TrEMBL record:
Its EC number is 4.2.1.12. It comes from the Bacteria. This is Phosphogluconate dehydratase. GO terms for cellular component: cytosol. InterPro entries: 6-phosphgluc_deHydtase, Dihydro-acid_dehy_C, DiOHA_6PGluconate_deHydtase_CS, ILV_EDD_C, ILV_EDD_N, IlvD/EDD_N. GO terms for molecular function: 4 iron, 4 sulfur cluster binding; metal ion binding; phosphogluconate dehydratase activity. GO terms for biological process: D-gluconate metabolic process; Entner-Doudoroff pathway through 6-phosphogluconate. PANTHER family: D-XYLONATE DEHYDRATASE, PHOSPHOGLUCONATE DEHYDRATASE. Catalyzes the dehydration of 6-phospho-D-gluconate to 2-dehydro-3-deoxy-6-phospho-D-gluconate. The gene is edd.
Amino acid sequence: MHPQLKEVTARIAKRSAQGRAAYLKQLDAARAKGRVRTALSCSNLAHGFAACGATAKQRLSGDEALNIGVITAYNDMLSAHQPYERFPAVIRAAAEECGATAQVAGATPAMCDGVTQGQDGMQLSLFSRDVIALATAVGLSHAMFDAALVLGICDKIVPGQLIGALRFGHLPTLFVPGGPMRSGLDNKSKAEVRMRFAAKQATRIELLAAESASYHSPGTCTFYGTANSNQMFMELMGLHVPASTFVNPDDPLRDELTRHAVRHLAAVAGDEACALGRLIDERAVVNAVCGLLATGGSTNHTIHLVAIARAAGVIIDWRDFDELSACVPLLTRVYPNGVADVNHFRDAGGLAWVIKELAGAGLLHDDVQTMFGRGLSASYVKDVKMADGGLEFSPAAFASVDNEIVRPAAEPFAPTGGIRLMTGNLGRSVCKVSAVAPEHQIVEAPARIFADQGELLAALGEGLDEDFVAVVRFQGVRANGMPELHKLTPGLAVLQKKGRKVALVTDGRMSGASGTVPAAIHLSPEALLGGAIAKLRDGDVIVFDCEQRRLDAKVADEELAQREPAAAPGGVSHGCGRELFEGMRAIATEPEAGATAFGQFI
């Protein structure tokens, strides 16, 4: 095992000892109650199976049949979640075939960040994760279930579902993906149209045609953003059926993989080692971080993985990400870090390749327990195909490896993972450099201050054309829910392509699709809480140095301390349901602690 991996993991385990012990004590107490359904009163139980068929009622009346609780994020507005409409029927039929029962225990919200980018609804996005966690817990609270199947894919949905499910960590739990849509318009062409539109060289009709050709059918978006990063770490944590992550929704294999998930869950439900809370320990969390770094995944997971880990009593921070990034090489080039999409990535070797290479280089905890046995590579470096009576798994062959998409650990695309902790007199922030060209990783330029994304977009539309560091403040979790600022990327990228030195500094987030423009994000302390970003003025020179991991304003410490922070803009707490989230904003933790309303409770 790589010494840095060993050192970081040991530090996390020491830091987490008290919280992890308390979590496992809670898990053991829940498991000690045994099958809680048998302790329900007759009235409770009758309510619980009133809508079931005769066979299911008979099974649920006794104390032997397994009952699987299904948590679904189905809606037919999200392309990624629309395929889940058919899954409950598939799951119930598979459960019946193996002598079990299955019930949809509850549904969670599932908003689409692709729809809400730049809109008021984006200010609800991050907190939708906490709402999803709550909804998951409500669904599993009925004391009817011996195991759980969780249906979710996209940005806040899987993190929220996992946080909620971990509060029922005594249950064996599998996550069931729906798969990506098939490849449409290639990502390079889509990005080019976006940049031409930002430069007023393409019409809205042209842009909509390009977007519609890219996002064109049921299934997950095919770029490697937060949604597909979620799917990566579900596999790296051992919570998916092996080789199931990137199978398309319309492939006959998709439904058979779902049936296999039910059969397998029924087979291992009595195994304490497969309890969700046992699987998600500090080693599983480190594996998820290593997978994120090796694949150039979403910066959103510097928040989400922190919150997930805390739900299992494990405490991680951005220093852990940074130190692991220094030793984990970049093994993949998938858009926005390359031109390939996740279908191409799957065909070039996919997650099995990544697991094999990281394990071989000592950059994973390979001896962990998964839902499919001991050993991550032994369980997940697999191919799968249809066979009589089900599925056939075999060691992955990697016959079509494309070294423009995946590389071996000995010959990576980059020697480091690309997520860096930036520090300096402005605070602590995260920067992802895996898609940023070396010549753009150091920017020293005057600050231009903006109160929100709209102000910067307006300035770009009016012809802003100079070297500058865009400072977009009052976008933190306490201020307005920490929206993604993805719409800034095309306009700033146009200036960068023209030779301007540009960068972004914000206490908000960027999308999982953030790419070529250097961006220091999640800046803490945030402006609303008196962070130094609130004291910056137009013209202050900012030094943005990705190589040295420094983010500084060239302002004397004494002057910066004496400056009065800018007043927060008004009017961001109301409309579009935002007032309903005011209480959550008021108690949310800082981003490095997960940006969650649960931080003081779990």
